[in-house]
Amino acid sequence: MDRVSSLEELFERLNGLRALIIGDVMIDSYIWGKVERISPEAPVPVVTVTRREKRLGGAANVALNVQALGATPVLCALVGDDTEGQEFRGLLADNGLTDEGIITSQARPTTMKERVLSGSQQMLRVDNESDKNLDGTEQAALLHRIQKLLGDCDVVIFEDYDKGCLNATVIEETVKLAGEKGIPTVVDPKKRNFMAYRGVSLFKPNLKELKEGLKIEFDHGDRTRLGEAIKTLADKIQAQHTLVTLSEKGVAINHREEGLHFLPAHVRDISDVSGAGDTVVSIASLALALNLPVRMIAALSNLGGGLVCEHLGVVPINKSRLFDEARRCKLHEEL
User: Fold this and answer.
1) What does the alpha-carbon distance between residue 24 and residue 113 come to, in Å, rounded to a whole number?
2) Which of 99, 152, 278, 324 does the annotation list as catalytic?
3) 20 neighbors 156 (Cβ within 8 angstroms)
4) Strand pairing report for 251-255 and 259-263
5) CB contact set of 267 (below 8 Å; sequence gap of 6+)
6) SS3 label, residue 250
7) Is 278 annotated as catalytic?
8) pLDDT one-digit tens code per residue, 48-101
9) Distance, CA of 228 to CA of 212 (rounded, Å)
10) All domains of the chain, ordered by start, with CATH?
11) H or E segment at 44?
């Protein structure tokens, strides 16, 4: 693919990309209410419901970010044969997303995380889920669907929430198939499969996941130890790019040939960091599909992750705002 030469061209070419997103999907359910008394049955608050809302969560939030950037997301995941599974498909339709990669499983429920809130305070969260590994039927169905959908895609994103949709076999087979087709693979990892993603194009843990994955501890301000840890992880995973998000410290990216780069965070009025990682991996994946330079991949991802933190709750990136901020920050100089 020809190199992008301007921000205008970059943002226009995002519209032609198609991303296959494989991983754990869920419904994020919210119940808002008022607390004015304590229950006579137990020493707990009584919440009088004022509003309910259900949103796409997990890997589906990555799909919303990819869509917001102008690209076409295709989710490949499992839902249960239950009311929540039907609701999940309905939410996809409501958001203009296809369900062609969604498989109905008879062996697990649809993951739903239900939060009860009063004002800005979360009172309770109830999780309905199973995190058991794929059975043979589920694995075969998932691999078949991946093989069917992969050929039309420009990048594969593994969005792992440790809920069982991904295992070593699915990961290995998909990375191999994508490699044969010249399609880059990007990972947002969790603990269970952390070391299973050998040979991917870009591996994106946060700092906590980096430490847990390598079973090491160091002060987050120690850049020397951090750089050593990132390079150790890159060697173990054999990833071409290793992008580590560092919260208020920005991001670090290691490239197999170009080495390590640190990029500081942009000054923001932070309201909520929820969902920032989904935005970062979405931007990084599409940037990689466009064959952008290493520092530009990190810089644009870092910028987008900070922007969504200015909003309360999980929201996808605003493409127009990202373009304006990229121009203001002169990111065209990284092209």
Assistant:
1) 13
2) 278
3) yes
4) antiparallel
5) none
6) coil
7) yes
8) 999 999 999 999 999 999 999 999 999 999 999 999 999 999 999 999 999 999
9) 15
10) 7-26+56-110+130-334 (3.40.1190.20)
11) none
